[in-house]
C-alpha cells in the first residue's frame, strides 16, 4: 500500500511511519515542522531526544530503501499538496497535519485564527487534491473525542445515532459540543469531510480519538527511533504530562476536582487502530466515524495511578490541585461507545499501569531534559481570559 | 442605538441601513465591496441601478446628518475590525459581511477556500473584537435555513430540540446537514458563535434565514435608495431570478422536478425581523437561534406564481425544466418551525403575489439592464463536477 502521511514529523506521524514501513508499505511523509516550532514557542522541547528531520530522512531511507520519500511543505499551499498527491498517487492518506493542542488555540486571537485556518483550510485543500487526482483513495483523518464534548449528559454514540422527533425517526450525526477553538476546528473538518463524501463519493474514516499517551511502539527500539514526547501545558497530553512531572519530583497538577472523564489510548494502540482502519477501508462515498480509545478514566484517578506506579520505581510523587484554567465541567456523566474498532480486531497491547511504568522508565533516562524545562510545566493558559 | 453593519453595501445591508437610520439610530457601515466585485466576476450587474459607494455615503450623510459613518475594510484584517469596534463602540452589530452564494462557493477549489476563509475567519475576528471591547453588545449574525439541510426527514426545530437516547433526555442543537461549501461555512460560524457565547458570555442571535426576495422596503422610495438586485445564477436568489427572467421573456429555469421546498421572506420583512431582534436582544451569554422566514414554497410553485402574476401585467411567461446542476433532493419532506419571531410581533407586510407584482413593475422600468446580461442567466454551475 502507498500511504501519504501529512504531519509525519509529529508524535503519532513518526511512530505510524515506522510501523507502516516495517509492514512493507510505501510511505511518503509531509511536514512543515510546525510542531517543532510551536513547542519552541512554548519554551519547551521533547522529553525524549529526537533526530533532526535530515537525520530522520537518512535513517528511514537507509533502513527501508526505496520505500520512503519526504517533502517539506504546508497544506495551506494548495499547489504543493496538489503536486504531491498527483505524483505519489496514494492508496491511503493519514492526515495528521493539524495544530493539535486545545490550550495552544486558547492562548489568544492569533492562536485561535492560526489553528482554525491551518486545520480547516489545510483539510479542504487536501480534500480537493484527493478528489481531483485519487478519488478512490482512503482518507483517514484524525479527529478527537473532544468534538462531542462533555455537556449533553447522554451516552456518546459512534458518529451517528437514531432519534425520534414528533413521530418521525431519523439517523443523524451525534451532536458536537466542543470545548475549545481547536476542538471546534476539528468539528468543522468533520463536517467538511462528511460533505465531501456525499458530494464527490470520497471514502473517509474520521477518527474520534481519545487522549494518547506513551513512549513505545513495537518499532521504537533505540534512540534514533524515538518519537517526540511533549510535557508542556499546550502539547503535553495529561498522562504524558503527569509522568514527566513524576520523574522530576514536580507535583502532578490536577485541574480542579479532577473528575473530568475522557477516553484514553496508548500510542502503540493508536498506531494499531489506524493500521486496522487502513486495512479495512470504508466503501466508496462512505463517511465512517470511529471512536478510537481503549478505556475511559477520570483525571484524578490517572494521577493516582501515576503516583502508585511511580512508588514501585522509588519515586515520591505528590498530587496538587490547581485552579482550573479551562472552562469545563469537573464532574460529569461520561459513557462513550467504542465498538467498531473492537469488531475489526483491536485489542489493547498493555494495561495503563504497564504503559505508565514503561513511560516512567524511558523518561528517567532523560530526566535532565525535563528538569531543564521544569518552569514551563504549568503556566495556566486561561480558557476565558479577558 | 449605535449599530455596526459590516456588509452595509449589500442587498440586505443597504436596505437595513436606510431603515435603521430612518428610525433615528446611528449606523456605522463597513464593506470591502466584494459583492460588487464578485457579481462583476459572474459578468453580471444589479438589475436595478445602484449608486456608487461614494454617492451612497454622500446621500446618507446629507439625509441623516451626524448619524452615519462608513469605513472601507475587510473582516480578515483583524486590526481594521478591532479598531472600528473600539472606536464606534456599538450597542449592536449586524454581521452581513459574508460571501452569501452557494453556487459561487461551488465553482471550484479557489471559490470554496475563499468562501470558508472569508466567512469563518472574518466572523472569528469580529467575535474577538466584540469580546475585547464591547462584550455586552448584541451580535446579530445572518445564517441560513440551509444550514439545517433537507435530508433528515424530520420537522426542523428552531435551533435546539429535546431528544431521548438510551433513557436519558437532553436538549441538543438541531443537526446541521448543509448542502454546499457556503452553507457549511455558515454552520462553522454558528458553531464558533455558540462557543463564544458560552466561553465569554457574549449575547448573539443567529438567524437561520429563508431565501429573500423583493425590491422594496418602506425606505426605498427613489432610485438613489435602490438596493442591489442580482439575477445571475450565483447571486440571484430564486424568486428574484425568476422575476428577472419573466420581464425579459427568458423562460423560468426550474431545476429538475422543482419540488425543492424552502422557506422564503420578502426583503421588507427581513429588515422588519432583524429590527425586531435588535429591539429584543437575548440576555448575556445567550446564543439565540431564530428561524426567519414567512412561508415555505416549492420552487415549481413559485415559478407558477411568477407566471400568473406576470400574466396580469401582460407578460408571456414560460417555464423550462433544466437538468439540476445541484446535488439535492428534488422532492422531500419539509416542515420548519418559525414561531419565535411571530411571538415577538412579526407579521408579513405583503403576500408573495403582491411582492412579485411590485418586483416585476420595478424591473420592467429597467428591463434593458437585464436584457444586456441575458446570456448569463443560466450557466449551470455544477455541484459535483470532477
UniProtKB/TrEMBL annotation, chains A, B:
<dbReference type="GO" id="GO:0046507">
    <property type="term" value="F:UDPsulfoquinovose synthase activity"/>
</dbReference>
<keyword id="KW-0378">Hydrolase</keyword>
<dbReference type="InterPro" id="IPR001509">
    <property type="entry name" value="Epimerase_deHydtase"/>
</dbReference>
<protein>
    <submittedName>
        <fullName>dTDP-glucose 46-dehydratase protein</fullName>
        <ecNumber>3.13.1.1</ecNumber>
    </submittedName>
</protein>
<dbReference type="InterPro" id="IPR053578">
    <property type="entry name" value="UDP-sulfoquinovose_synthase"/>
</dbReference>
<comment type="similarity">
    <text>Belongs to the NAD(P)-dependent epimerase/dehydratase family.</text>
</comment>
<feature type="domain" description="NAD-dependent epimerase/dehydratase">
    <location>
        <begin position="3"/>
        <end position="291"/>
    </location>
</feature>
<dbReference type="Pfam" id="PF01370">
    <property type="entry name" value="Epimerase"/>
</dbReference>
<dbReference type="InterPro" id="IPR036291">
    <property type="entry name" value="NAD(P)-bd_dom_sf"/>
</dbReference>
Amino acid at each position: 500500500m502507498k500511504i501519504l502521511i501529512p504531519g509525519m514529523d509529529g508524535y503519532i506521524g513518526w511512530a505510524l511511519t515506522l510501523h507502516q514501513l516495517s509492514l512493507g508499505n510505501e510511505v511518503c511523509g509531509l511536514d512543515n515542522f510546525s510542531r517543532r516550532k510551536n513547542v519552541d514557542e512554548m519554551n519547551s522541547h521533547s522529553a525524549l531526544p529526537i533526530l533532526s528531520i535530515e537525520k530522520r530522512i537518512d535513517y528511514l531511507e537507509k533502513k527501508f530503501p526505496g520505500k520512503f520519500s519526504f517533502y517539506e511543505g504546508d497544506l495551506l499551499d494548495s499547489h504543493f499538496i496538489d503536486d504531491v498527491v498527483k505524483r505519489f498517487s496514494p492508496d491511503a492518506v493519514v492526515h495528521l497535519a493539524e495544530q493539535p493542542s486545545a490550550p495552544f488555540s486558547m492562548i489568544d486571537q492569533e492562536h485561535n485564527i492560526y489553528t482554525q485556518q491551518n486545520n480547516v483550510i489545510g483539510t479542504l485543500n487536501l480534500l480537493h487534491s484527493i478528489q481531483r487526482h485519487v478519488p478512490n483513495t482512503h482518507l483517514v483523518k484524525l479527529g478527537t473525542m473532544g468534538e462531542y464534548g462533555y455537556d449533553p449528559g447522554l451516552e456518546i454514540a459512534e458518529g451517528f445515532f437514531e432519534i425520534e422527533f414528533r413521530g418521525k425517526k431519523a439517523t443523524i450525526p451525534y451532536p458536537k459540543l466542543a470545548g475549545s477553538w481547536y476542538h471546534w476546528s476539528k468539528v468543522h473538518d468533520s463536517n467538511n469531510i462528511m460533505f465531501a463524501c456525499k458530494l464527490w463519493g470520497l471514502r473517509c474514516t474520521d477518527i474520534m480519538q481519545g487522549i494518547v499517551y506513551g513512549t513505545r511502539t513495537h518499532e521504537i527500539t533505540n534512540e534514533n527511533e524515538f518519537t517526540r514526547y511533549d510535557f508542556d501545558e499546550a502539547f503535553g497530553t495529561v498522562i504524558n504530562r503527569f509522568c514527566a512531572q513524576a520523574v522530576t519530583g514536580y507535583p502532578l497538577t490536577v485541574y480542579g476536582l479532577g473528575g473530568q472523564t475522557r477516553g484514553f489510548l496508548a500510542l502503540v494502540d493508536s498506531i494499531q487502530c489506524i493500521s486496522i482502519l487502513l486495512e479495512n477501508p470504508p466503501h466508496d462515498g462512505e463517511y465512517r466515524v470511529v471512536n478510537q480509545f481503549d478505556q475511559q478514566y477520570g483525571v484524578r484517578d490517572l494521577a493516582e495511578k501515576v503516583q502508585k506506579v511511580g512508588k514501585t520505581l522509588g519515586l515520591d510523587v505528590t498530587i496538587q490541585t490547581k485552579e482550573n484554567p479551562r472552562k469545563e465541567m469537573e464532574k460529569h456523566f461520561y459513557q462513550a461507545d467504542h465498538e467498531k474498532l473492537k469488531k475489526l480486531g483491536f485489542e489493547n497491547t498493555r494495561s495503563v499501569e504497564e504503559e505508565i511504568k514503561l513511560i516512567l522508565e524511558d523518561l528517567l533516562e532523560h530526566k535532565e531534559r525535563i528538569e531543564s524545562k521544569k518552569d514551563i510545566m504549568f503556566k495556566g493558559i486561561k480558557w476565558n481570559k479577558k
